[in-house]
Every structure is written in C-alpha cells, then in structure tokens.
Amino acid sequence: MNDYKGFHPNKNWKPDIIQSTIQPELFFKKYINTRTPCIISQFPENFDPSQLSIQALLKSCGNQTVQVEKKLKGSFGHAGTRSNMLFKEFVQSLKTGEYYLTTQYHEDEDEKSDDDDEEFDDDNYATQDMDNSKIIKSTLQAFAAPPLDHILDKVPHSMDLFNGLILHQMNLWIGSTDKNGTSSGLHHDFHDNLYFLIQGKKEFTIFSPKDISNMYLNKDFLKVHFNGLIEYQQEPGDRIRSDGAFENDVIRWKVDYAERLIEEANDDEQLKEKAEELLEKALEEMMESGLDGDDLDLLATDLEHFEDEDDTNEADNEVDDSFESDTVQHPKKRQKTVPESTLDTSKSIELETNEQNPPSFSQIPISVLDGKEKSTKYPNFENSTPIKINLLPGQILYLPAGWFHEVKSFGSDVKSQTHVALNYWFAPPTTDDPENPYQDDFWKDSHWKPIKDIIDALHLTTDQ
User: Fold this and answer.
1) Torsion (CA) 284, 290, 296, 298 in degrees, nearest 10
2) Which residues, other chains included, contact 348 with Cβ-Cβ below 8 Å and sequence gap of 6+?
3) Which of 127, 138, 143, 181 is most deeply packed, by most CB within 10 A?
4) β-strand 201-207 against 387-391: which pairing, if any?
C-alpha cells in the first residue's frame, strides 16, 4: 500500500539551491512538510568542517575503535563483512580503498564479551560509577557513532533549520576510491537526512517514494506512509507509526510517562487526576495491543495498583508508596525495550532480518541504474523518475525519509581520492506544525531527553 502524499518530481526537475540562512519556518513549510529534497549551498556558521579533516580526526580519535565495512562486489552498503580496527589503522587502509567507515551497528552492552570491554579511562565517559559509565558510553555511541562520540564538543548536535525535529543519530562516512568512484547501492533510509559533504565529490541518483514499485527491493514492503516512511513486516502486531516509532514501544512509553506524572504530581490533585486518566487509557491500549507476557504481567500489576486506589480510600502515604514501588520497578523493565528499537529504527529493521541483502536495498545492478546495461529483469524500472544531483564540498543535501538514492563517491582530485561526509538522521515529521512536528512527545521524551541530559552533564556542547 502506497499512501505517499509528498512531492514527486518530473524528469526535468532540479532541486532548489538555498542559503543556510533561510528561516527555519520557511524551510519547514517549503521542503520538510512537502517532502521535497533541496541543496543548502553552505554550512551553517556554527559548523567547522576542519574538525572533521582526517588530520584532526587522527589527533582526537586515532586510538578509538571503529567498525568498518569491506567492499563487496565493487560497492558498499550490502551488509558486507564488517570488522573492528583502530581509527588510525583505518586511515592507513584508505590507500587500498577496501574499507569504508559507515554506520556503526550499535552492540548492546549485555551482548558484549569480556574481551570486548574497554577500559573506562576516557574523560568522555568517566564517572565514579562504572556501570553508569557503560550506560553513558552505550547511549552516546548509539546516538553519535564512533568516532563522533569523542568529538561531540566540536561538532554541532542541533540544527536551526531542523529546530523542531528530533535528531536520531549522527554518522561519519569516510572512504577512498579510484577515478571510477564507489557506489553505495540503491536504497532508502528510514529518517530525514541532512548530508554534509566535507571532502570529495558525491553524485546522487534519487527517486521519490512514489516509485517504490519500480525499485525491486530485496523484500516486499508493507506500507509507504504519507510522509514517505517505508514500513516492512516486523513481528506480528508490531507496527510502525509514520514517525518511525514502533507502536508497542509508544504504548509502553505512555504507561511510563503517566506513572512519572503521577509521581511528580505530589499534592497537585488536578495534575494527579489528569495523569491517572492518561495511565488508565495507556493501560487499556497495552491490553488491547496484545503485548508479550512480561508486558502483560506489568499491566496486571499496574491495573491492580490503579484499581486499588480507585476503589478504596487509603491514606495518601499508602497510595504514594504503591505508585513509588511501581515506578521504581516496572519502567526499568520497559525502558530496556524502548531504547533498543527507538535509538535507531533503521538498524533494527535491517539487522533483525539477519540477511546479507537488507530489505531497504534494491536488486537493480548499478550498471542498469546507470544505463550502461540493458536488462529485462527489471521492466518497471523504466517507469521511474531518476534525478541526478552533484554535491560539492561545503554543500548540504536534504533528503526526506523514504527517498531512494544511490551515491557515487569520488575524491576531490587526482592527488586525494578520500571522501568524507557527515550526516544527521531525524525522525520524520507527522504534522504540518514546525513547532510541534510529531503527534506526541515520544521521541522527545524517550529518545532525545536522555541523550541531551548526558551531553549537558558532560558539557559536550559547541558554541552556538
């Protein structure tokens, strides 16, 4: 089912090239809300690209472990072999062009072996509590993929143009190539993308979500949402909203959020009554959703506490104790579920398939995409509308969620075949209000608030 309602180009369309000083409200109205790609002609004033030069990164991150992808059949992005190496070793490998620094697949601390544990002597994470340090490190690295987590005080993690949107993840992309370039493969992302080109050249071939039936994906899609977000079949009953959030995670968050409101209400009876209404509604949603056994056990306990308070006239201190016990115990269990899927929806969608070819990638060979080869295997591809975009250093590409793209990377010149880019992924909006672009505070409260609290506590801020 394709419910996409956004912009779809004709074959002669060219993206607008705009100034970074455009008003955020106008940018939202003209490009984000209409789902229209554009090029921003220069970096914002608070963005210093010299901090992302190879030399600067070697100085600040040379001994940090990063995950790199090995080239597979002449291109990257097809879940090829990944390995860990020090960043300085990866820089040395750029001479061969066999490895690419791309998205860092976050590994949960519980799944790591003792051999993988690193010493926590890094000032970025140092706290008196070792377990707390691990949580901080894990949270930061899920948000700012290594080596970016070590330079968050040098790279902006907020964008005025995206003032209302919730930043989901930051990624650094570094590779090298010969004169023919290297390809990412044709694919789509699950977030709105702000792509900064630091060094080299990039040639994008893009298609709108309206062309999905012409893309020959590795897996059949379930739905294209109105804003372009593409949904695939997950576990039974675990649907995805148009902002990329799993519906069951939102239900768990609503319960936790209402419980926290009750705890914070103290003697404010009006606020407490409103919070209790929210909790009752959230618990009913949880029951109707068919969540797993652990969640239903929590639900039964919550309902018991809720009904006890509603049906009896216990003393205030006894009621407060019941809710205190509930909020201390149960949200902890829930919160482990929420971050695993919400910190990076795109990864959870792709990695859970355990396939070499992620569902978000097209089967169409690059030679066919480029028109160098004819094939009868992909007849519908002729009905699509490809748009070519050349991105130069110092420029930014805005690409809405669900837009298909194949990216060819080139060096700046014969002497330097290295290319460097930084991208910001944002949860796709679901309303036409730039101040409140989502239907609720799920992303702000469950995803961004924990990250911002850590960033503020560690003083990892740039001058803005």
Assistant:
1) -60
2) 340, 341
3) 143
4) antiparallel
This prediction has a pTM of 0.81
pLDDT tens column, 219-265: 999 999 999 999 998 766 678 999 999 988 998 899 888 888 888 88
Tokens coding 321 = 């104790």
Q: What are phi and psi of 134, to 5 degrees?
A: -65, -40
Neighbours of 378 (CB within 10 A): 18
CA angle 220, 206, 163 (to 5 degrees): 100
Question: Contact at 8 Å (CB) between 176 and 94?
Answer: yes
Q: What is the distance in angstroms between the CA of the first residue and the CA of the last residue of the chain?
A: 43
Distance CA(236)–CA(234), nearest Å, equals: 6
Output the pLDDT for position 74. 55
Quote the tokens at residue 388: 């070519």
Question: Using one digit for the tens of pLDDT, what is the confidence trace for 9-31?
Answer: 999 999 999 999 999 999 999 99
Give per-residue pLDDT as tens, 105-140: 655 444 444 444 444 345 555 544 545 778 888 888
Instruction: For residue 410, give the nearest of 79, 155, 181 by alpha carbon.
Output: 181
Q: Which residues of the chain have pLDDT under 50?
A: 108-121, 127-128, 130, 293, 299-303, 305-354, 463-464
Question: Would you state the pLDDT for residue 25?
Answer: 94
Q: Cα Rg for the chain, rounded, in angstroms? A: 23
Tokens of 196: 């900064």
